[in-house]
Amino acid sequence: MTLRNILAILAIAALIGGCRADVPAVSQDRPANTSATRIAFDDNRAFSDLTAQCAFGPRVPGTAAHQKCAAYIEDQLKTVVDQVRTQDFTYQDPHKKISIPMTNIFGVINPAASRKIMLCAHWDTRPTADQDFDPANRSKPIPGADDGASGVAVLLELARALHNTHPSACVILAFWDGEDWGPGEDNMYIGARYFAIHPGALRPTESVLIDMIGQKDLTIPLERTSDDRFPDLCRKIWAIAAQMGYGANFPQRVDYQISDDHIPLIDAGIPSIDLIDFNYAPWHTLGDTPDKCSPTSLGIVGRVLGAYALSGS
To answer: Which of 181, 179, 161 lies closest to 171, judged by CA?
Structure first.
């Protein structure tokens, strides 16, 4: 993901110094319809999913580690969801002049329901550590513990937790490929862009993206585009977080505007919001390793999304 419409110097300050934009607090004049149903989400098992992905190595499209991770995701899903679907496609990189096979993976629960909730994360990792402080590392692929593996880990444990709860909505767990291919933004969000053009029967009623949600000291403010376009959906999820005692992790303030996988879905007319903790110093560096992440953070996000998936429209 990249910052959108923000000066580069402000982004660097946020990453290094923990600074954030001076933005107004969120208005509280619209109550959210919430139901904070707690699911049996296993934080440590989710963290095991995170470390398992990283053990494959960087999951760069076109590599053996990428193929192993795809097989792992499908294997974890197949016993706990009603359907496992894949969306295979070939991406023609206009800059590198190469063809790269990519795959979006979907786990579908209660497929017959008319209301379709999509919970998303990207499962690929960036081929270049372009933000690393050591210039010698910038051509190397990142480990992608927080930036990729954390969101996947939450979705896999959610699949297990929702297996016996029988949600009234169809819950689609979407794993996007090619989000971080790059290096430029025109060469990113590839899997989400492909799905936005070819959604088929999986086109959701609404979508929630999670990205970089595994770090310690988790803080997920409202992403600006999400709040501008779909404030009711944002307030519903943030209200659930508050009801569950996670208000400090989901502060009621609007932060940066982020370009991420939710943008192609919005452009395709699908209500979509982004849950992201972008204040992460090892972003796009070789330091994005499992020791920077926390089982507790995965559990917080997983339980909030589980309550959201089980809530009414």
So the answer is: 161
Radius of gyration of the chain (CA): 18
pLDDT tens per residue, the chain (313 residues)? 654 433 333 333 333 333 233 333 333 333 344 447 889 999 999 999 999 999 999 999 999 999 999 999 999 999 999 999 999 999 999 999 999 999 999 999 999 999 999 999 999 999 999 999 999 999 999 999 999 999 999 999 999 999 988 899 999 999 999 999 999 999 999 999 999 999 999 999 999 999 999 999 999 999 999 999 999 999 999 999 999 999 999 999 999 999 999 999 999 999 999 999 999 999 999 999 999 999 999 999 999 999 999 997 5
SS (H, E, C) 11-69: HHHHHHHCCCCCCCECCCCCCCCCCCCCCCCCHHHHHHHHHHHHHCCCCCCCCHHHHHH
